[in-house]
Amino acid sequence: MSEELNEKETTAEAPAEVAPVVETETATAPEAEIVPQEGAVEEAVATPTQPQVIVQRERGFSHYVGFALLSVLCICFYFMPGIAITFAISLIPGISLGAVAAWTFSAIFSVIAWAIFKMKIKGFKKSFYFYIGLCVLISILLVVIEILTEETNVFAKIVSLLCGAA
Fold first, then answer.
1. What residue numbers bound the domain in which 23 lies?
2. In-domain check, residue 56
3. What gap in Å lies between CA 17 and CA 78, rounded to an integer?
4. In terms of domains, do 89 and 19 share one?
5. 112 to 103, 105, 145, 164: CA distances (angstroms)
6. Is 55 helix (H, G, I), strand (E, B) or coil?
7. Residue 122: which residues within 8 A CB-CB, separation 6 or more?
């Protein structure tokens, strides 16, 4: 039993001896870190004085055509829920819509769908993501209808409806 007491006393003394060594090492560490930071500040001050060259390429006609096409596709994608509802309404026999009426109804239905999402879901960002999800879901649904039914030609009829040819 006396051996166990001696071992406990030696283990209790060992951490007390190690603690001052740790304190002296941490006291010298911040002094070593200060010197490189001063040199880094001098280098950062020297870099903004160098001249900067900005190279800008001229944009061709294809750039503007691509931008216009992407803008139209984004607008059509945003109005996808309204366009789908308007297309479904135009399939009812006896109802014919002109291009202006089709775009107007598509815009009204899309804004109503957006307002429903905005009222039901708190937060602009979250409601925006859910609305984009709805647009993607409707797009996938239209593609599936196009693939499964060979005679429907969904996208051709939607384009002709929005252009006023229907």
1. 2-49
2. no
3. 72
4. no
5. 14, 10, 24, 23
6. coil
7. none
pLDDT digits (tens, 9 = 90+) for 20-78: 444 444 444 444 445 455 555 555 555 567 788 888 788 888 888 988 888 888 887 88
| Cα dist from 43 to 32, 33, 35, 83, whole Å | 19, 16, 13, 59
The sign of the dihedral angle between the CA atoms of 61, 67, 71, 76 is positive
Label residue 149 by pLDDT band (50, 70, 90). Answer: confident
Question: 144 and 78 in one domain?
Answer: yes
Q: Is residue 82 a contact partner of residue 106, using CB atoms and an 8 Å limit?
A: yes
Q: How many domains is the chain partitioned into structurally? A: 2
* Residue 93: DSSP 8-state: T
Residues 141 and 108 in one domain: yes
C-alpha span between 144 and 43 (Å, rounded): 60
Q: Is residue 69 part of a domain?
A: yes
pTM for the predicted model, two decimal places: 0.53
Q: Specify the DSSP class assigned to residue 47.
A: G
**Do 39 and 104 fall into the same domain?**
no
Is residue 55 in some structural domain?
A: no
Asked if 113 and 83 count as a contact pair (C-beta separation under 8 A), the reply is no
Q: Is 101 contained in some domain?
A: yes
Let me know: does 99 contact 163? Beta carbons within 8 Å.
yes
